[in-house]
Every structure is written in C-alpha cells, then in structure tokens.
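dumping this here before i forget
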Amino acid sequence: MIVDNKEIGRRLALIREKSELTQKKLGEFLSVDQGHVSKLESGKRNFNSIMLKSLGALFGCGIDYFLSEKFVEQDSIKVALRADEVSGEDLKVIADIGRLALNLKFVEEVMNTDD
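structure:
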C-alpha cells in the first residue's frame, strides 16, 4: 500500500481530533488558514516534509506516523496547560518540547540496542 495524501490527511485528522485541536488552531500552528487544514485532511493538498516533521513533533508521534505503510494508531503526547485557550505560539512551544521528547526516545532506543 502506498501512503497517499488522502491517507496522510486521514491520519492527521484522527490525531488532531484525539488531541482536541480545531482545524483553526492547527492552522495557526502551521501558519495557514482553516481551509488549508481542511484540504490537507481531505487529501486535496500536498504535504511537504517540513510540515510532516512539525506535525510529528507537535503530536509527539514522529513523521513515521504519517508515512508508514503499516499504520499504528497512537495517542499524541498529553500536555497539561493552565490556560483556557491554546494559541498558535503555544502550539509551537509544545512542538519544540515534542521534538525533545522524540529525540530522547530515539537516543533511548539506540542505547538499548547495544545491550
């Protein structure tokens, strides 16, 4: 099975909804409008590698969540916030933390393979 834009979009919508983010909030994070996010999720727009890397960091799942032929559903990293509303800038900070968590996970996996 080739993972096409429609399947990547379906996976994005799934994890976005699990994370309780609106398309509008995700658009703020990606610096696009809600309509663009809708088209991404429906497969009508193309994803680029930078976007996929950013989305993987935001949701704490890595780019393989979107591109792997064998799909494994997963939850995004849970983040506790003391705010009623999350801004696009807040999501960028969360993505930075997600990148650190993914890097730590990778290092731990590499360290464990040497045993």
